[in-house]
Each structure stands twice: as C-alpha cells, then as structure tokens.
Amino acid sequence: MADLNLMRGLTRNEGGKILLLVMDGLGGLPRQSDGLTELEAARTPNMDRLAREGSVGLSIPVTRGITPGSGPAHFALFGYDPLEYNVGRGVLSAVGVGVDVGENDVAARGNFATIDQNGLITDRRAGRIPTSETIKRLELLRQIKLPQVEVELVPEKEYRFVMVMRGKKLNANITDTDPQVTGKPPLCTKANEPEAHRTAEIVNRWVSEARQVLQGQEPANMVLLRGFASDPRLPKWQDIFKLKAACVAVYPMYKGIAKLVGMEVIETKSEDTPADQFKRVAQVWPDYDFVFCHIKQTDSRGEDGNFDAKVAVIEAVDSALPALLDLNPAVLIVTGDHSTPAKHRAHSWHPVPTLLYAPETHMPDRAQSFGERECLYGALGQFYAVDMMPMALAHAKRLEKFGA
Q: Which of 308, 385, 291 is nearest to 339 (CA)?
C-alpha cells in the first residue's frame, strides 16, 4: 500500500506529464445475450489499441469484497489510503459547490426522494428531477428554523443538494438517514458516540419538519441525508507529489475531492460531453504536470440499469480520445473509480479495468482489447488502487531511488 511519507521523500519536481482519465463506475458484469460486459461490448478502437501497445490490469478500490462509495474510491486513486482517510460525502459535495466546511461544521449530501402514503421510499432519486426543481424545494426547506443552529442548503445537481449545519458542539459522527434501498422508510439518524447525540437529535428534527414541508411536492416529497462529515484537513498533493494538478469534471462532488487534495478545478458546464471535457483538458494541458478528467455518465447509466446507454457513453469517450492522445502525455491512465454493473444497478465490489500507456516505460502484455477479462491477465495484475499514483509517478520518471 502507498505511503504518503515515503512519496513525500521520493517525489521529484521534474519529469513527464500524467493524465488520469476516470470513467466513473467503468467496471461491469456480463449480460446474458452474449456474455459481454459493457466495456467488452462497446466499440473502442482507440482504447483497444492502447491496450495492445500498453499494459492492463484490474484495480481494487479499497480491499477485496468491499463495495466503495465514490469518495473513498477516488481518494484511493489519488494515493490516499481510503481506510485511513475516510472523508464523508457531505464535505466532498459541499466543497464541490463552493461551500466552506469548518472543523466545527457538519455537512451532508442530500437526495430528494419519493415516498408513498405509507412513508416507504419508492424512488431514492425523485425521478432525477432537474436542478431547477431542486432549487424550488430548497426554498421551501429554508423555512425550517432550528434553535442555535444555522442550516445552509445549496443545490448540487439534479435531485442532489448539500446541507451544512453550523453551531456549537456539533459532531458529524452520526449515521445516514438514507437506507439506499427502496421499499423501506427513511432512517432516523443515530449517534455513533455520546458526543454526537445532540447533533443526531437536531438532524432528526430537521428531517421530520422537512417531510411536513414537502407534503404534496411529489415526486420530491422527502429528503435523504448521508455522508455526515467535517473538514478532514488532508495533506495536500503539492506537498506530497510535487505536481501542479488540475481537475476537469462536471459533477460537483468530484470537483470537491480535487479541491480537498489541492488540485485546481477547471471551469466546466453541466451539459459538457466527453468531447467538450477533453477540449478543456487540451486547453489547460500546457500549464499543469497532472490532469484528472472525470466522466460521470458511465456510473449514472449503470445505476439506471441501462446496459446499452452505458455502452454508448464508453463509445463516446473512445471516439473523443484522440484529443487526449494528441497531447502526448508521458503517462496516460484510463480506469474507473469502482464498478457499477448495469445488471447490479449499484456500485459493486468487482475489480476495475485499468489501462496504463507510457510508451517509454510500460511493459506490453498480451492484451488485445480493453475489457475485464483481458485485464485479468494483464501485466499490471490485480493491484490496490492506492498504488496507482506511485505507478504513475514512476512511469513519469518522477520518483528517486529508495535507499543506497
């Protein structure tokens, strides 16, 4: 597993440039009709060529058998052990939309959801209502007042929003209200330690009042909260890896992760396609040593259970890929943060296809295409995602020798 102190001592201020392309939820499972996964079924001539010329393998986001959230999965890709740096989703989303979260604040990621007359969740995403509808409902929720606590509500994207509580003696160590399944009622949050009881009571009161305020606002007639967290005070990338790094992402949460580790976030539009994002990468490429480009829709289509739509996103990325190849990065990594098989309709524990293309230093293997089963026998083997950054730095010739 990567060691940040070791990296801090070995990294150099010079070397090749690195480009990390993350297709969120890239990994999949075979469909019944032909036994192919989404990545295997997609027509990807550019990725297949890179796989033939480069090295492939499978990354394990946290540890074997563990299904990761997007936060820990990305922190692993950025070289932070997710078991040591377990940052709550609330902070990631808050920072991503430009909201500061202090040590004494508590942030949570919110979903608008649909409940039936019995209070059971029928849709955790409220039909993916547009951001404009979320803004209207947040105006209603701002009517709720809590004693000695200020609540800030900010739209994130579509049905998602951010909640930040500010007040004395708040404690983020409480459980989620989102059961992450339909057919059950929202949960009451509970304190994980005695010091968090007051915060749990405040959140439960706010959620109860929110339910009353949202009556008749179908499909978004309830809220679900998860990822309660405060400022994690992470060690910064520039100090550890000596890289001037940029992030090109559309979804706020991934911008938040990038900001927390010290990357500069490049302006994008919510409707940007992969081709649009790659143009932004090309525009800023001369100014940075490292660029992280994040594609969200592979994950969204997997969660929707739409195999063909996920295939289409992968194909759109591959079609636009020459724009990145023209930049001639010393190291190009194409991977996902986790697997989101369409047949599973959720994140899963399956290892993630990974492609490393570093013409001067990589070890070509026998892979003929980029897919789960080809990656199973690739030169990279199966490795923990937290080791991705040391590999990238080594191939970019940015690491000193260890020891005499």
A: 385
DSSP 285-346: GGG-SEEEEEE-HHHHHHHTT-HHHHHHHHHHHHHHTHHHHTT--SEEEEE-SSB--TTTTS
pLDDT 10s digits, 321-369: 999 999 999 999 999 999 999 999 999 999 999 999 999 999 999 999 9
For residue 254, the one-letter residue type is Y
Helices 388-395 and 70-77: angle between axes, nearest 10 degrees: 30
Computed over its alpha carbons, how large is the radius of gyration of the chain?
21
Do residue 126 and residue 209 come from a single domain? Answer: yes
Q: Is there a single domain that holds both residue 40 and residue 164?
A: no
Do residues 116 and 185 both lie within one domain?
A: yes
CA-wise closest residue to 63 among 51, 76, 50, 54: 76
Q: Is residue 290 within 8 Å of 20, Cβ to Cβ?
A: yes
225 and 109 housed in the same domain: yes
pLDDT digits (tens, 9 = 90+) for 252-292: 889 988 988 999 999 998 889 999 999 999 999 999 999 99
- Lookup: tokens for 139: 């105006």
384 beta partners: 60
Which amino acid would we find at residue 101? Answer: V
- Which of 182, 204, 229 is the C-terminal boundary of a domain? 229
User: 231 Cβ partners below 8 Å, 6+ apart?
Assistant: 91, 101, 102, 103, 105
Residue 217: domain span:
93-229
